[in-house]
Amino acid sequence: MSAKVSVIIPVYNAQDYLRDCLDSICQQTLTEIEIICVDDGSSDDSLDILKEYAQKDSRIQVICQKNGGAGAARNNGLHHASGEFLSFLDADDFFESTMLEEAVSAAEQYEADFVVFNSDQYHMDTRSFVKPHWVLRTEDIPPYMPFSHRQLTGNVFKTFVGWAWDKLYRRSFVLSHKLWFQEQRTTNDMLFVFSALVLAKRIAVVNKVFAHQRKGSSETLSVTREKSWHCFHDALLALRQRMMDEGIFWELEKDFINYALHFSLWNLNTLAEPSHSLLKEKLLQEWFTELGITGKPKEYFYNQTEYAQYLELRKE
Predict the structure, then answer these.
(1) Tens-of-pLDDT digits for all 316 residues of the chain?
(2) Which domains are present in the chain?
């Protein structure tokens, strides 16, 4: 039986939450799936847990690689995938049991290149679910499906978040456009997700919370971001180059520059020292200009609060 969905899960030192994740996949109401777990050189008991689950469920295959980050792990899984659709999930998150069934149903109904669904955050300290307003900006989405980025009414790069785990992709679409994850420590899925966004002709949305992102489970990402504070900039440049190569940057330039300012400031505002000062200096000396932000008039920017912070930085 061929798989309807290939579920690709990069795993790195996720022993505390991996069982919850795997249970939520193995218990999906859509059963025709293959579950490709890529152990990214874990040093804890993650690999043992994966092998234990693989013995119990023949749909699970375990691939081991040297530590290369989630982007490299997803690419490795993608090379092994055979399903009609692709789902990229994170090992410390967990999912509603009908997620894949309902996402596939929408993809088939609308012949979509990819489907977006809603998500929330599970805060471990309070054991509560919190729904951020920014993960899916429904007010920017047209009242019909399918649609493309040209029918979105706001900044196309802020309608959906640039992560892969709240979306289901048609594998033939991914392969035909040669979409791959950047193999860098952080911001490794933005190029894949936003390239798909601007290349897709048919997008569908299921406005239901299907994924629960665990918050407070790991300090490792913030530590990694301190060391790899330049990765977001590398992702932005790669995305711009992809749009130029596709001949569509001219129509997305304003949205891109506004997003570049937003993402630059978010990274700056959330980094600790000494990375904060390093990034600030780089932005002021090079990157604001390189990203096309410098020299634009006030009215060019959608978010005047962000523009005001940008001006303050320029004064310092």
Answers:
(1) 689 999 999 999 999 999 999 999 999 999 999 999 999 999 999 999 999 999 999 999 999 999 999 999 999 999 999 999 999 999 988 899 999 999 999 999 999 999 999 877 766 676 755 666 756 788 999 999 999 999 999 999 999 988 898 999 999 999 999 999 999 988 999 999 999 999 999 999 999 888 888 877 554 444 566 778 899 999 999 999 999 999 999 999 999 999 999 999 999 999 989 999 999 999 999 999 999 999 999 999 999 999 999 999 998 7
(2) 5-218 (3.90.550.10), 224-315 (no CATH)
Going by C-alpha positions, the residue among 128, 190, 202 that lies closest to residue 160 is 190
Structure tokens at 184: 């860098």
- Kindly state the tokens that stand for 165: 């785990």
- Alpha helices by DSSP H, listed for the chain, are 18-26, 46-56, 70-80, 99-109, 156-159, 171-176, 190-199, 220-227, 231-246, 249-270, 275-282, 288-290, 304-315
Rounded-to-integer distance, Cα 121 and Cα 161, Å: 14
* Torsion sign over Cα 205, 207, 212, 218: positive
Q: What is the pTM of this model?
A: 0.94
**C-beta separation of 97 from 27 below 8 A:** yes
Q: Is residue 212 within 8 Å of residue 95, measured between CB atoms?
A: yes
Answer yes or no: are the C-beta atoms of 20 and 28 closer than 8 Å.
Answer: no
Contact 95, 14 (CB under 8 A): no
Q: Give the Å distances, CA to CA, from 165 to 10, 21, 28, 150, 185.
A: 11, 12, 15, 23, 17
CA dihedral 117, 12, 21, 31 (to 10 degrees): 80
- Give the whole-angstrom CA distance, residue 309 versus residue 296: 14
| Cα dihedral value 96, 101, 104, 109, nearest 10 | -120
The tokens describing 84, both together, are 């009609």
Give me the amino acid identity at 11: V
